[in-house]
Amino acid sequence: MSFELDPSFIVDMENRPNVNVAAIGREEVPVIDLSGDIERIVEEVGNACKECGFLQVINHGVPLHLLEAMKETSKEFFDQPMDEKKKAKRDEVNPVGYHDGEHTKNVRDWKEVYDFLIDDSTLIPASPDPDCQELRTITNPWPKNPSQFRVVCQEYAGEMEKLAFKLMEIICLSLGLPGGRLKGYFEEQTSFLRINHYPPCLFSDLTLGCGRHKDFDFLTVLAQDDVGGLEVKRNGKWVHVKPDPTALIINVGDICQVWSNERYKSVEHRAVVNGEKERYSFALFLVPSHHVMVKPLEELVSEEDPPKYLPYNWGKFYATRNRSDYKKQNVDNIQIHDFRVPN
Ligand SMILES: O=C(O)CCC(=O)C(=O)O
Ligand SMILES: [Fe+2]
C-alpha cells in the first residue's frame, strides 16, 4: 500500500480545509418546515435565498426509507472492483455514468461519482461549438450490478424531482411571479442526479472531496449522510453544515442568479473529506431544456434595474463544461461571470 499522495489532489494553501471550521447547525443555514401555511413558506424560502443562498427543508415529503435504500445500493455499487464500475463509465461522448477523475478549479477531487439523467434519454447539443446545430441523445449507462440499483435510483430521483419543482414554484412566488412561470423551460429538462462517494483520506488536511464551487443549475437538492463534510461560505468564512437525517439541503444555483437578476445569488460551497470514514451525498441538479436561453426574466428588470447578464444558451454552456471536466487544464472553466454585464 502506498502512503504517498498524488500531487494532482493537493489543494493550494489558501483553499485547504481548515480544521477549525465552526460546526454550525440550525442558526446558520435556515431550516424551513415545508408543511403548513404557504404564505409563511414562501416568505421564509425567499428570505433564505436572499440572505444565505442555502436552506434546509424538513417535512419535505421524500420518504426517509428511500434515502436509506439509496445509501445501501450506492455502497454496493462503489464497493465493487474498478473494472466493474468502469463498465458504467462516463466518457468523451457520454457525460453521465461512473467517473473518478473530476477536477474542480483544476485540482482533482477526492471522490468518485455516478451521474444519471432524470429523463433516461435526454437531448443535448452534439458540440460546444456555437455554430453547430446538431443535437444528440444521451442515455444513462446503468450498471447491471447491484441488480436493484436502477430501480432504487429512479424511485429516489422521482421524489427528488417532485420536491425540486415544488421548490421552484415557491421560489417563483417569492419573486412575485406566478408559481408556474418557469415550468415551460423544463419540458426537455437536462436535470441529473449525482451520487458522490468520498472514500476516507489519510491526507484530509491537504485534499478536498469537492473543491470550492458554485452550482451551475437552477437549484440543487442535496442529501448527505451522517458523516458530514459540506461547508458553505458565509460572510467570508467556511461553515460546516451539520448533518440532519430529517433535512434536505437546498441551494440556489447560477441559473437562478441570472433569471432573478441577482435578487438571489448562488453561493460557494465545498466538501471536506474524513480521515477515517467514507461519506455519501446525493445531489439533484435541476436544469432546463438544452435550447433555453438563460437571461434575466423580463418581469424582474426595469430601467432602474437593467439586466445584469447577457443571454446564454444552456445546452452550449453545459457542453462546454463537460468538455473541460476531463483533464487538468490551465484555463478557468466557462462560468456565468463570462456573461455578466459590467457595472
Ligand atoms: O457532498 C457535498 O456535500 C456537496 C456536493 C456538491 O456540492 C456537488 O456535488 O455539487
Ligand atoms: Fe455543489
UniProtKB/TrEMBL annotation:
Residues 189-288 form the Fe2OG dioxygenase domain. It comes from the Eukaryota. InterPro entries: DIOX_N, IPNS-like_FE2OG_OXY, IPNS-like_sf, Iron_ascorbate_oxido_reductase, Oxoglu/Fe-dep_dioxygenase_dom. Gene3D superfamilies: B-lactam Antibiotic, Isopenicillin N Synthase, Chain. SUPFAM superfamilies: Clavaminate synthase-like. The keyword Hydrolase does not apply. It holds the Pfam family 2OG-FeII_Oxy. Keywords: Iron, Metal-binding, Oxidoreductase. PROSITE patterns: FE2OG_OXY. One of its GO terms (molecular function) is oxidoreductase activity. The keyword Iron applies. Belongs to the iron/ascorbate-dependent oxidoreductase family. PANTHER family: 2-OXOGLUTARATE (2OG) AND FE(II)-DEPENDENT OXYGENASE SUPERFAMILY PROTEIN-RELATED. This is Fe2OG dioxygenase domain-containing protein. It comes from Linum trigynum. The lineage of its organism: Eukaryota, Viridiplantae, Streptophyta, Embryophyta, Tracheophyta.
